[in-house]
Amino acid sequence: MVAYTTGTYTTGAVKAALLALLRGERSRSVTVRLPLGGVATIPVRSVTVNNRFARSSVVKISCEKKDVTHNLEITVTASLRKDRKIVIRAGRGIGVVKKKGLCVPPGSPAINPTPRRMIEETVRELTDSGVELVISAPGGEQIARRTWNPKVGIEGGISIIGTTGVMKPSSASAFKASILAQLDVLRAEGVREIIITPGNIGEQAVVGLLPERALKERVIQAGDYLGFALKEASKRVERIVVAGHPAKLAKPVEGYFQTHHTRSPHAKNIVLKFLKPRISPTTFARLEKLPTVEGIVQVLKKESALGHLCELAELIEQSIKHHLATESAVPVLLFDMEKSLIGLSRSAGVWMEEGST
After folding, report:
1. Furthest-apart CA pair in the chain: how many Å?
2. Coil/strand/helix, residue 195
3. Distance, CA of 137 to CA of 10 (rounded, Å)
């Protein structure tokens, strides 16, 4: 069974509510478009409608029962506005961003950019009118306490997330098996170079940067199992390139190659420790108040100080080489959430030049 993200389920609830509001339809299921193509069919638990609003609910089914949002009910209440705006509000159980540094501005519902875009595109497929959407998740306040949300400045509930709309299994056995299967296929095909990345952001960024060199089928998503993927890849290919966001890739600097938040510290602390001797006390104090690595990255970008992240990439490469007990280069490329290149090790610069010749 294919499993979908909270963003996809929320979009399904939005569509069901609007179909009820605009057409009086009480859908038992709806079909929504996925960000990278294809569609998802989302079962609808309930629909109610009157002359002022419509409300629908769906239940998120995860591919991992340990996922804190497995069996979570998501509800959407939709009503029309006199203007043409699409207004999205956080109801009970949906977090609100309270700090700077996230990909969503303070004061906004904790709905990441891709799900927000999915929701807005779905609204516009059905109507040009203004719409107000209130998204809720009963029990979301309690669930959020078991996530990073309170630590990064999201209060009151869960986040609506997802970059592809589709979930991948994250249990150790399932995920490791999928990594091994991909590596074995590539070895059988005679592939000599692969790119390892923590997830979708890194994959999309490196493929977008070097489409002819970073072929999508040669990119392995390691998830939280970076160390496992590196060691298994080193047995099968001649060269490994590592690409991704420093929120995951900074963790090997202090020896953490299993990067799940329950098995490793917050990368923000590792990045701050690295930056402290390299920046002014005033700048450090400013960065220290930010909740995420992405926030730190954006400040460095504005201050034209991304050179520090090249140093960080170099340090990450040295940590990986030590982990693999090799002297061979392991190029490291760092990207931000906007998929912009923000740092690279020296060998990564050479690797990129090779691809342009």
Report:
1. 70
2. strand
3. 10
Instruction: Say if residues 229 and 253 touch (Cβ distance below 8 Å).
Output: no
Structural domains for the chain: 6-158 (3.30.2110.10), 172-356 (no CATH)
Tokens read off for 142: 């309690």
pTM exceeding 0.85: no
Does residue 277 contact residue 328 with C-beta atoms inside 8 Å? Answer: no
Task: Look up residue 19 and give its DSSP letter.
Answer: H
The separation between CA 212 and the C-alpha centre of its own chain, rounded to angstroms, equals 24
As beta bridge partners, residue 158 has 94
Amino acid at 63: C
Per-10-residue mean pLDDT, the chain, length 357: 88 98 96 93 96 96 80 97 96 91 87 95 97 97 87 88 76 70 84 92 91 82 92 95 96 91 86 96 93 94 94 97 96 95 96 75
Q: Is the Cβ–Cβ distance between 65 and 6 less than 8 Å?
A: no
Residue 40 · residue 100 · CB < 8 Å: no
CA distance 274 to 343: 14
SS3 at position 245 = coil
- b or e along 258-293 (b: 16 or more beta carbons within 10 Å of the residue's beta carbon)? ebeeeebebbbebbbebbeeebeeeeeeebeebbbb
Cα(102)–Cα(154) distance, rounded to whole angstroms? 9
As a whole number of angstroms, the distance between CA 237 and CA 218 comes to 11
CB atoms under 10 Å from CB of 191, counted, come to: 16
Token pair of 72 as six digits: 């979570």
